[in-house]
Amino acid sequence: MLFTSYGFIGFAAILFLLYYLVPKKCQWPLLLAASYLFYFFAGPEYLLYIMTTTVSVWLTGRAIQARGEKTAAYVKECGKTLTREEKKAWKEKGKRRQRRLLVLCLLLNLGILAVVKYAAFAIANANALLGAVGLERRLDVPDFVLPLGISFYTFQALGYLIDVYRGTVPAEKNLFRLGLFVSFFPQLIQGPISRFGDLGKSLYEEHPFHARTVALGLERILWGYFKKLVIADRILTAVNAIIREPEIHSGAWVLVGMLFYALELYADFTGGIDITIGIGQALGITVKENFIRPYFSKSIKEYWRRWHISMGTWFTDYIFYPISVSKPMLKLSKWSRAHLGETVGKRIPVYLSSFAVWAATGIWHGASWNFIVWGLGNWVVIMVSQELGPLYGFLRGRFPKAEGRLWFRAFQVIRTVLLMSCLRMFDCYRNVPLTFRMFGTMFTEFNWSILWDGSLLGLGLTAVDYGVLVLGLALLFAVSMVQRRGSVRERIAAYPYPVRAILWYGLFLIVLLAGAYGNGYDASQFIYNQF
Amino acid sequence: MERKVREMEELLEILEDLHPEVDFTTCDRLIDDKILDSFDIVSVIAEINERFDVAITAEKITPENFNSAKALYALIQKLEDGE
Predict the structure, then answer these.
(1) What tens digit of pLDDT does each residue of A18-61 get?
(2) Which of A312, A410, A485, B21 is deepest in the core (most CB within 10 A)?
(3) Is the Cβ of A316 closer than 8 Å to some Cβ of chain B?
(4) Contact call for B46 and A301, based on CB within 8 A
(5) How far apart are CA B54 and CA B57, in angstroms?
(6) Complex ipTM, two decimals?
(7) Rounded to whole angstroms, how far apart are CA atoms B54 and B47?
(8) Where does residue B23 fall: left (phi above 0), alpha (psi -120 to 50 degrees), or beta otherwise?
(9) Do A321 and B38 touch (CB under 8 A)?
(10) A residues 327-386 near B, CB within 8 Å?
(11) CA A73 from centroid of its chain's CA atoms
(12) Which residues of A touch B40 (CB under 8 A)?
């Protein structure tokens, strides 16, 4: 059920009515039922996967907590008779058992993800390898259907489990409450990847009807539809026309495709998240922000702190830190300091751990080489900019006035957008050699006249479409600028009712009239649904 | 007491090496204001491990422990005491 389908709008409207009609204590069970119904519509066979994850994570969380409590109780009870070393040994023993439980559950759930998402990719590569070494034997490539949102809900559930292991959150006693956290339908298909400590706070509370909160939520939903239907789905036509015919659309076309895709992806993904957060807000539930105007970032590192925030923090907290401060890594760091010098030794933990994170980020996005190369491309750019730090410092000292100037900030922002757009070409073409080839044509083919000779009208968009896009993007830009000084919706809420009504109906009409529907358009999937 | 002062000075030295422009004796929003990023944190932990011989594990990487040099030193002391 797509967010943009009539079915989904009907589903959400009925749920919304029931949610505020049923007794307050029935609100979260209703949400659980609705989430499972939503998942059932996606494919009844997928339910088994999400239920396996939920039950295994719930049982393990409970067992980890029980083990921790048992150890603490024993140490407390025998506190006077045990020496300090004995107490430490008991605690370590308890922690080891907890870790064993955690690792088993991680293996089970990551194993499921690996089989359904990556088995075909791994076997196809193994077959290619067999062919390369001259063997005729080939393995059968399995054809699993990827359960909806498996990458998102698996990571969300495992994040909860690691938090229980770390003692950051208590294990949830009620299986059904944890079931809702894992399956909460608005964020099931494209995130954000919420933390139990954040989402759990408002998910199970009783929510009386607050007109203002509901209105703010509905506004956010409408804004999400505007981004998705008016901007993203309109540009999609042109992006597809460019990338599906690489032989025709090379040179300057590649640059156009790159920039169009940057706009499409932003409008599509942030629009989807606006709808998710808006549905949450209309139900009284706080879903954390996943974007903070990422295209205003001045460096790639900053960009990744502002784009798909929940994924970035997940990888940092649960992969980057555990690897980089692990005992083997610290030993390696010590060894390399002693044998390779301070300069190299210091860099080892950061370089290796971030390599692992970016390889994982790449493969998380999809089981194909283009995503892995995309992830590692990000790693290379971040490491290069890290190494250029002293040079930047020198230049800042040499030209101290440039830092605060508008032109310099604009230069940094444009540089970041262009770098990110270049890397995303791997995502566009989904073929590594082709991406490199197309990138090269930007410097070898000088067909820049396509930008003004009317060729852009051959991409499936009319002059009116371009007009709508320019106006839509101008509105998006203006809203982003205002957002820097605080919430736009809060500002609107302070206006008199007639002004608010004009703005609401105006935006509604824009979505209705200027949304990309009908012949030539296909209400498309959100890009992140496929991850 | 003398040991504490010496260790604190050593910690300040580690932090100032990374960000000479920051006054670590007063700043108490190192994480909240994004002065220390994840790369800095890992570098600091490796240095602490090298000089103080204590291992800061991933679960200890929280804003509360890293927002100020004082909080970070309190964490080091806790780990030195074996807590």
Answers:
(1) 999 999 999 999 999 999 999 998 888 889 999 999 999 999 99
(2) A312
(3) yes
(4) no
(5) 10
(6) 0.90
(7) 10
(8) beta
(9) yes
(10) 327, 330, 333-334, 337, 346, 349-350, 353-354, 386
(11) 40
(12) none
Side-chain-side CA neighbours of residue A493 (13 Å): 15
Tell me the two tokens of residue A483.
């957002």
pTM: 0.89
Give the pLDDT confidence of A380-426 residue by residue, as tens digits: 999 998 888 888 888 888 888 887 788 999 999 999 999 999 999 99
**Token pair recorded at residue A211:** 């007109």
Contact A321 B49 (CB under 8 A): no
Instruction: For residues A162 and A151, give the distance between their C-alpha atoms in angstroms, rounded to a whole number.
Output: 16
Give the pLDDT confidence score for residue A3 in this predicted structure: 85
Q: In the CATH hierarchy, which fold is given to the domain comprising B2-80? A: 1.10.1200
Q: What distance in Å separates residue A76's CA from the closest CA in chain B? A: 14
Rounded Cα distance, A281 and A210, in Å: 10
Chain A residues closer than 8 Å to B35 by CB:
none
The whole-number average pLDDT for the span A350-374 is 91
Any idea how long chain A is? 531
What is the band of A525 on the pLDDT scale with cuts at 50, 70, 90? low
Domain coordinates of chain B in residue numbers?
2-80
Mind listing the pLDDT tens digit for each residue in A153-167? 999 999 999 999 999
Instruction: Spell out which residues of chain A touch residue B57, defining contact as CB-CB under 8 Å.
Output: 325
Before A192, cis peptide (omega within 30)? yes
* Cβ B45 vs Cβ B17: under 8 Å: no
- A309 touches A291 (CB < 8 A): yes
Q: What pLDDT does residue B21 have? A: 86
Structure confidence by residue, pLDDT tens digits, A85-124: 787 788 888 889 999 999 999 999 999 999 988 888 888 8
Helix locations, A233-368, DSSP H = 233-244, 252-282, 300-306, 309-315, 321-324, 327-340, 342-365
Cβ of A168 and B59 within 8 Å? Answer: yes
